[in-house]
Write a structure and sequence with these properties.
Layout: H1 5-12, H2 16-23, H3 31-43, H4 50-57, E1 62-67, H5 73-88, E2 92-97, H6 102-114, E3 119-123, H7 126-129, H8 133-138, E4 143-146, E5 156-159, H9 161-174, E6 179-183, H10 189-202, E7 205-209, H11 215-221, E8 227-229, H12 233-245, E9 255-260, E10 273-276, H13 279-294, E11 302-305, E12 308-310
Parallel strand pairs: 1-2, 1-3, 3-4, 4-5, 5-11, 6-7, 6-8, 8-9, 9-10
Antiparallel strand pairs: 10-12
Helix pairs in contact: 1-2, 2-3, 5-13, 9-10
């Protein structure tokens, strides 16, 4: 039979309030008392019942995180960082997987509201979220966008894709490339603007591709293109395979730069040059900002975090004559 707080307090000879605060590591309780309480609680396998506490405070100590995928290692690491930050602060994290449809979003959001999460994190396109903001406000559920651009009236934490686009293009230009293929990345207009501004300043010609599968044919039609800036590191690997299948080498025939800073880019067999997003900083800043909102700071803030260039072996000067 599970031991209760009352029984635990009785065995310790302490009040219920003292035991409860000690279990929450409150500095108002002496360190030796906290240690004694935690030791006995562990020995007796005591599990706090947060239901009653939630009824009193109207807080569930649960956060909801809604996102579309974690197959990209960048998002996987982002989810992990937010999860650890929540856990260490005594929150549980509920994750909702949302295919890119309004119906799926509504279904997952309804479940989050039924679970009475204290707040929500969205790594989703705004078009899915915006129609439901009146519902979130009606339920008094704070929210924040993580790694997604949004209008200034909402809170967000995002990597600086404009700067990242500039970094990628400038690195290729410095290597001598004067004609570059870049991802159209309509969901990241700021990155495309960074590419364009840097290309104009460096007198580099840009062409956009919509999908990686069309790149070999584009290179056949435009042999002056000597470098590619991929949408992500995962896409860069796919492009590399497509180039190899079409008889081209990286960086011998075509230079290639990724985006995100995924772990595999530093492996010897890949050694991919990439623009690395500050993933852990994005995750921690998202959680930190959300706790500020829950504490009453309601003035929206948009936090922009700078990426960094991580050189690899996939960028080299173009072949002579190109």
């Amino acid at each position: 039979m599970a031991i209760t707080l009352n029984e635990l307090a009785k065995q310790l000879g302490l009040s219920n309030a003292t035991v409860s605060m000690a279990l929450r590591n409150s500095p108002r309780i002496a360190a030796d008392t906290r240690e004694r309480v935690r030791k006995l609680a562990g020995e007796l396998n005591y599990v706090p019942n947060n239901f009653g506490r939630g009824l009193q405070s109207r807080r569930s100590r649960l956060l909801g995180y809604m996102l579309g995928t974690v197959t990209r290692s960048f998002l996987n690491e982002l989810l992990e960082t937010v999860g650890f930050a929540s856990m260490y602060d005594g929150y549980g994290l509920l994750t909702g997987w949302v295919p890119d449809t309004p119906e799926a979003f509504r279904s997952q959001l309804q479940l989050m509201l039924e679970k009475n999460v204290d707040a929500l994190i969205f790594t989703l396109t705004g078009e899915l979220v915006y129609p439901h903001i009146p519902l979130l406000r009606a339920h008094r559920k704070p929210f924040i966008f993580c790694s997604c651009y949004c209008p200034p009236e909402y809170d967000s934490v995002v990597g600086d894709h404009y700067l990242g686009g500039r970094m990628a293009l400038e690195h290729l230009a410095e290597a001598g490339h004067r004609a570059v293929l870049v991802s159209e990345c309509r969901s990241l207009e700021e990155r495309l603007r960074g590419y364009s501004d840097a290309a104009r300043e460096r007198e580099v010609t840009l062409h956009c591709y919509r999908s990686s599968g069309e790149i070999p044919a584009m290179l056949d039609a435009m042999p002056e293109m000597t470098a590619i800036a991929a949408f992500s590191d995962a896409e860069a690997l796919e492009i590399r395979h497509l180039l190899q299948d079409s008889g081209r080498s990286v960086p011998g025939d075509v230079s290639l730069i990724g985006y995100d800073g995924a772990w595999f880019t530093q492996e010897r067999e890949f050694s991919l040059t990439t623009v690395a997003q500050p993933v852990q900083e994005i995750g921690r800043s998202t959680y930190r900002r959300l706790t500020e909102i829950l504490a009453g700071d309601s003035d929206p803030r948009q936090i922009l975090l700078a990426p960094s260039l991580r050189p690899g072996a996939s960028v080299a000067p173009p072949k002579t004559g190109k």
